[in-house]
Amino acid sequence: MTWEGGKGICRSVPLPNEAKDLKPTTIELIFENLNDAVTNWRDRVIKVLPDALPELVLDTPFRDSKSGEARVQRTDFQMTSPDKVGYVPYPLLYRCGICGSTREFDSVADQARQPLPRKCNGHEARWTQVDVVYAHWSGDIEPLSPFNYNFDPQTDTARQIKMCTCGSSSFKLRNAAPVFSEWRYVCEGCGETRALKKANPDTLERLPIQQNDGGRQFQWIEVNMLPVSYRANSTFYVQRTSFIVFEDSAVVELMTPKRRDGLVARLAKIHEIPFTEPSEDEIRKSVEADPTRVGEWDEYETYLRMAEKAESSGRADAARRHRDAATDLRETWFADGIADRGQLGSPAVLQAIAVREDWTRRYDPIRLTVQHDAFVREHIDQAMTRHAAVDVMDPDVALTDVVNDPTRKAKYQHTVGSLLSHLGMERLVLIRGLPICEFSFGYTRVSATPIYQREHNGQRVDMPVRLKAFDQLPIADNKRPIYVTQQLNEALYFRLDEARVLRWLEANQIVDAPGDHVGRAYLERYADFGPFLEEFKDREGQGGYPRTLPAYVYLLLHTLSHQMMHSLADTSGVDRDGIGEHIFPADLSFVIYRKGMTPDLGNISAMWRNYAEAFLKRALDPRTLRCGSGSLCDARGGACPACVMVSEVSCLASNLLLSRSVLKGGKGPEWEPRTAPNLVGYFDPSIA
Ligand SMILES: [Zn+2]
Ligand SMILES: [Zn+2]
Ligand SMILES: [Zn+2]
Ligand SMILES: [Zn+2]
Q: Based on the structure, what is the number of domains in the chain?
């Protein structure tokens, strides 16, 4: 960043400012999401560059030092509020505007000890910071000094020789040329010139060692840094992610192996899977019959009584604590085989629970089912009681002023109801304050994404971009900050009409389509989509066929989600890149929400008041379901940036598993063989 009207340039340094108002479940979710982000970063690098050194892919706090794999330890991080940040002058390289002579300092203290001289080469000096730095995709920056690093094979270290061969250590910087490649350092002793070239010391210390150990041959373009303006974006890309906040600790706790039985019971309830559960009385008898468990049933009942008492006196946290203690105790009886937990009537769901640990988390339908359950309870049902959410078919006066006029209200309900039914939506809820947590956990340089392609002799060479944690906080254990902000944002929740989905699945010859209970069938038939959705890329006719339920349900929900995101951006003025999506596949629903912490002029409530009809009609409009970009999009998959795609940062699924054909009919998705029959669209009157 620049400082004081461009007079001096600074870089930000973390200050201790712990974020103390975070709920335990939020912290759990931050680490869960961080783990995902870090794992995903590594996966994306390794896929392109399998030989990349682990330490050049992930910074120390993000990886296991032995295996090199992604690993996040809570004790290395501190939740931090971003409203207090320090600044120090940087870079400490100065150039005299009169003669071009340069001075460099190692630190602010070094500069304080021996300040810049008033006189320079016999004239009044005019020192300014050199605002061009060397940046490297490994995450380092260095001042633009004339002294390069060399690898010393004796010590296996990078050494900087701060002197010209003539013995002089003074250099002038000739920077009049418009391109960095023509800038030169000139030795003030002998007049020798140097082009801008500096190795990244960290990379220079590693790649020759890898090579000498019989590993990959390295090239200098992997090591040499790039001169860039310190004011340019490319010197610092903040890495951040956001998620929906939940109060219910089940969204994290039920995911742990310890609570497997609780998860089984919950899934059975949500998706109406037959489940024979023992009665409380049967459990009590089993516990009391076991000599090693004397008194535990009484203890269990005491916890429950204390929870009830706390609840009735309004101490929600204490109530939760007691209830958790009761649940923990009860779970030990099941885990230790003292009492029988009950039988789930779906071996396939039990199998899914057993293997889901290896699934890519963002598509894990079991996790998303539990989240959806909490979502409806907290962000819809409970929110409705405080007017923080409203079903558009049952509007309040804040949503639309028709509520005061029975005739207009009936007309509104008829219009909206009929559009929703054309869209195949069973429910649409506007949520006025969906709690969104956004956190930034690190940064990268040169590239915002895991692979940087460096141009070299007309070729592009792939470089691993290192994900860096923020600098250490000046506190005990030198923890790294995670900057957290929480905000209530507007959102729209959509749930599809299950009967219509079933007709659509059947019309498209989905081989494993069930007769009912799509959610349960989704859990039973789901197989890991994987981090890159490889199966759903263009397989040049070699992809999976016949059609299966999970892929098609996801394809439908995801395409509808994008269609509504576009519609929202067009009718509300909300920035397209500022809309996020969240898909609950087994519950046939999705949410689109304002992600941004950046205020724009759009808002969803105002959109609904003024343009509700236009918003829904646009989604159905045949014109928005055609693509203007030419026949390629129509022939191959039916999704491109000109139509249904959104920006990479807004999409959950890398713009895969998308196709306009699922709505309007036409060629099947890109992974299917060309011979696959055309799709019947979800909007087709024949299945409505
Ligand atoms: Zn000078
Ligand atoms: Zn010299
Ligand atoms: Zn297109
Ligand atoms: Zn998407």
A: 3
CB 196 within 8 A of CB 144: yes
pLDDT tens digit sequence for 343-372 = 888 999 999 999 998 899 899 999 999 999
Length of the chain, please? Answer: 688
Q: Which residues of the chain have pLDDT under 50?
A: 1-6
**95 Cα: distance to centroid of ligand 1 (angstroms):** 8
Rounded to 10 degrees, the C-alpha dihedral 43/48/52/57 comes to: -40
Task: Please give the pLDDT value at position 2.
Answer: 42
145 alpha carbon – ligand 2 mean position (Å): 15
Q: How far is the CA of 411 from the centre of ligand 1 (A)?
A: 79
State whether 177 and 289 are in the same domain.
Answer: no
Domain of residue 188: give its range.
Answer: 95-229
- Please give the Cα distance from 230 to 130 (Å, whole number): 9
Q: In angstroms, what is the span from residue 221 Cα to ligand 2's centroid?
A: 26
Q: Give the integer Cα–Cα distance in Å for 338 and 286.
A: 6
The DSSP call for residue 74 is G
Is 488 part of any domain? no
CB-side exposure of 605: number of CA atoms within 13 Å? 16
The rounded Å distance from CA 560 to ligand 4 centre is 9
Domain boundary (294, 328, 358) is at: 358
Dist CA 334 CA 261 (whole Å): 8
